[in-house]
Write a structure and sequence with these properties.
Blueprint: H1 10-15, H2 36-48, E1 59-63, E2 73-76, E3 83-86, E4 117-127, E5 130-137, H3 145-148, E6 151-154, H4 160-166, E7 176-178, H5 180-189, E8 195-199
Parallel strand pairs: 1-8, 6-7
Antiparallel strand pairs: 1-2, 2-3, 4-5, 4-8, 5-6
Length: 201
Amino acid sequence: MSIDLPILSRRTLLGAGLLAAGPALASLPRAAAPHPRLLERARDAFVRHGHRIARKDLIAIADYGVHSAIPRFFLYAPDTGALTALRVAHGRGSDPAHSGWLQRFSAQPGSAASSEGAYLTGEAYWGQHGASRRLIGLDPENSTAMARAIVIHGAWYCERQVLEKTGKLGRSEGCFAFSQADAGLVLDRLGPGHLLFSGRA
């Protein structure tokens, strides 16, 4: 599960002025791949929790070391090396100033923060955000995921119009929130029994 591709750093993004709103968003680059250190952690989690991962054809990795304006949620097919990058929101408790950068992780109920670690994708259901998928936390850092109702879902604050107006996505209550179109793709490809790894280098 090794990918050797260039990674966009926070300093590079800021220096290039790539976080401006409006028309400048059209030129935003896509993050080439998750940070190598995060890939290593995801690989370790894949091995550590292998007995619980029924579907090994696809792995999801959320690289929260990247700004929310940049695609940072990756669907990776180990057999082919195919990589799909999408934008994903983080929790408002992880970014109180709404800068677009995740500042901290928390699994504390009521924190409204994103949690790091390995998740197992669960059943699909229809909730207040429409089509959604439950997530089971496999590590101590995200063991409260079910109790906190941390799920995959679509959200209006992840739509292109919000990004163009503000230069960043809105924030979730700790869930992995996407635009409606991207949520449909993730829900379709990332069925139950897959690994989703969340973190930052």
